[in-house]
């Protein structure tokens, strides 16, 4: 699918520049991802990771899950925002991505908070514990609805689900949607009518939805 430019690139670059994140360790992840892989645009970016850090800090989240770690850019941001007794369960099935991530995450003082669940998210998501405070969902889009349903049952009251790529490069607006755009558009509509939650969809990068589970 042809990607649509949704945000003025100059404005997006300005916003990235004026975000507190990243730090030296995260810049190493960017360098390794750009050097080793051909699709570094899959990195979450400063705005998304900055938002995750802020949500963790202001909500007091202690137990966090990341569905789709990629090379660890958002992982590092969340790890270093968690309290000392916090825990982050990260699911990733690509060994190359995981190797780049661990190479950089291992040197973080917060590495001990990480538990990597290596393998398919469709299988390993069921191993996540109950009592999650925040979930960052950024894995294979075809299974977003399944992941949403599973983590909703494991989420604490007032817990948050943060979904990335909810615009799918503008595909959700097209009349002739591809498969992933159709799936994401249907989930967006379902979340909007889900009486268990309140949600806000943000025009950050490729679209971010922040969903709060009502008490």
Describe the structure.
With 215 residues, this protein is α/β, with parallel strands linked by helices. It has a single domain, classed as Vaccinia Virus protein VP39 (Rossmann fold, 3-Layer(aba) Sandwich), CATH 3.40.50.150. The chain contains 8 helices and 7 strands; from the N terminus they run αααβαβαβαβαβαββ. Helix 2 (24-36) packs antiparallel against helix 5 and helix 3 runs parallel beside helix 4. The model has no long low-confidence stretch (mean pLDDT 92).
Strand and helix layout:
Elements: H1 9-17, H2 24-36, H3 45-59, E1 63-67, H4 73-79, E2 87-92, H5 95-105, E3 114-118, H6 121-124, E4 132-137, H7 144-154, E5 155-164, H8 179-192, E6 197-202, E7 208-213
Parallel strand pairs: 1-2, 1-4, 2-3, 4-5
Antiparallel strand pairs: 5-7, 6-7
Radius of gyration: 16 Å
Helical content class:
25-40%
- Average pLDDT across residues? 92
CATH hierarchy class name: Alpha Beta
Instruction: Give the SSE string.
Output: HHHEHEHEHEHEHEE
Main beta sheet, described?
A: 7 strands, mixed
Strand line-up in the sheet with most strands: 3-2-1-4-5-7-6
- The figure for the number of domains is 1
Enumerate how many helices there are, as a single number: 8
The CATH architecture classification is: 3-Layer(aba) Sandwich
Q: How much of the polypeptide forms β-strand, as a percent range? A: 15-25%
From the N-terminal CA to the C-terminal CA, the straight-line distance is 39 Å
- Counting helices, strands and paired strands, the structural category is alpha/beta
Kindly report the CATH topology: Rossmann fold
Any low-confidence stretches, pLDDT <50, length ≥5? none
| CATH-assigned homologous superfamily | Vaccinia Virus protein VP39
Overall geometry = globular
Q: What is the number of strand segments?
A: 7
């Amino acid at each position: 699918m042809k990607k649509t430019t949704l945000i003025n690139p100059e404005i997006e670059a300005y916003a990235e520049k004026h975000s507190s994140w990243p730090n030296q360790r995260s810049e190493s992840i960017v360098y390794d991802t750009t050097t080793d892989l051909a699709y570094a645009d899959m990195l979450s970016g400063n705005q998304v990771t900055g938002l995750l850090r802020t949500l963790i800090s202001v909500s007091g989240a202690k137990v966090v899950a990341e569905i789709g770690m990629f090379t660890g850019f958002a992982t590092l941001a969340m790890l270093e925002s968690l309290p000392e007794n916090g825990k982050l369960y990260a699911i990733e099935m690509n060994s190359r991505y995981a190797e780049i991530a661990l190479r950089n995450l291992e040197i973080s003082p917060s590495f001990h908070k990480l538990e990597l669940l290596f393998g398919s998210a469709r299988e390993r998501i069921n191993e996540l514990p109950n009592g999650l405070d925040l979930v960052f969902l950024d894995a294979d889009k075809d299974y977003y609805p399944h992941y949403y349903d599973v983590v909703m049952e494991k989420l604490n009251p007032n817990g948050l689900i943060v979904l990335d790529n909810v615009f799918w490069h503008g595909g959700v607006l097209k009349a002739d949607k591809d498969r992933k755009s159709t799936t994401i558009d249907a989930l967006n509509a379902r979340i909007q009518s889900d009486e268990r939650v309140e949600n806000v969809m943000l025009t950050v990068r490729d679209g971010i939805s922040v969903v709060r589970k009502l008490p």
